[in-house]
């Protein structure tokens, strides 16, 4: 992300360099204004692409989290069914044995089910927290990138709007081109 921000900062500056490097642009305020417009359009397109990529990544992460939650719920249901079946089988076989054995088995089964449910809930909560953190980080990065790009575009426009034209008598005339 840092390299993207650096790229977005130096892209308009590179266009500035090209603008002043090719002197024919300096002779025409109209060409200079069009060059600035091209810089602005390129920066806006790059920002839009970055925002679209970020949104797609967030959607993919959300889908993955939902799939993980569904898998976890299915696993919990399967575990509970297996535990219930085991309890029923043990109770049926132990009916002739002492009641204490049945109570111990039931307590063990309940503890196992509670532990599994707590672990599943913890995994789901951690997954949701991770998604929220990722979304917040992505939004902050996008906002920073957009602010940096807007500042850079404003600075580039402010710098490029001053075009130097050499007059017929050798004097230097400064023409300010306002690009909105």
Overview of the structural elements:
The protein has helices at residues 2-21, 23-26, 29-94, 99-160; strands spanning 162-166, 172-176. The protein is mainly alpha-helical.
| String of helices and strands | HHHHEE
Beta-strand residue percentage: 5-15%
**CA-CA gap between termini:** 29 Å
**Number of domains in the coordinates?**
1
Q: Can you give the helix content as a percent range?
A: over 70%
Going across the biggest sheet, name each strand in turn: 1-2
Describe what is shown at a glance.
With 180 residues, this protein is mostly helical.
Itemize the secondary structure elements and their pairings.
Blueprint: H1 2-21, H2 23-26, H3 29-94, H4 99-160, E1 162-166, E2 172-176
Helix pairs in contact: 1-3, 1-4, 3-4
Spell out the key features of this protein.
180 residues, mainly alpha, 4 helices, membrane, transmembrane helix, transmembrane
């Amino acid at each position: 992300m840092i390299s993207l921000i650096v790229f977005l900062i130096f892209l308009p500056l590179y266009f500035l360099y090209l603008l002043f490097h090719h002197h024919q642009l300096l002779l025409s305020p109209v060409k200079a204004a069009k060059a600035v417009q091209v810089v602005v359009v390129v920066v806006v397109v790059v920002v839009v692409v970055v925002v679209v990529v970020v949104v797609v990544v967030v959607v993919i992460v959300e889908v993955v989290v939902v799939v993980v939650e569904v898998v976890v719920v299915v696993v919990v249901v399967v575990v509970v069914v297996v535990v219930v079946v085991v309890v029923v089988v043990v109770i049926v076989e132990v009916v002739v044995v002492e009641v204490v054995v049945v109570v111990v088995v039931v307590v063990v089964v309940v503890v196992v089910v509670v532990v599994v449910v707590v672990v599943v809930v913890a995994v789901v909560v951690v997954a949701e927290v991770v998604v929220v953190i990722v979304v917040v980080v992505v939004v902050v990065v996008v906002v920073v990138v957009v602010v940096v790009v807007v500042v850079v575009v404003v600075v580039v426009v402010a710098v490029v709007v001053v075009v130097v034209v050499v007059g017929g008598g050798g004097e230097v005339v400064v023409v300010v081109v306002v690009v909105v």
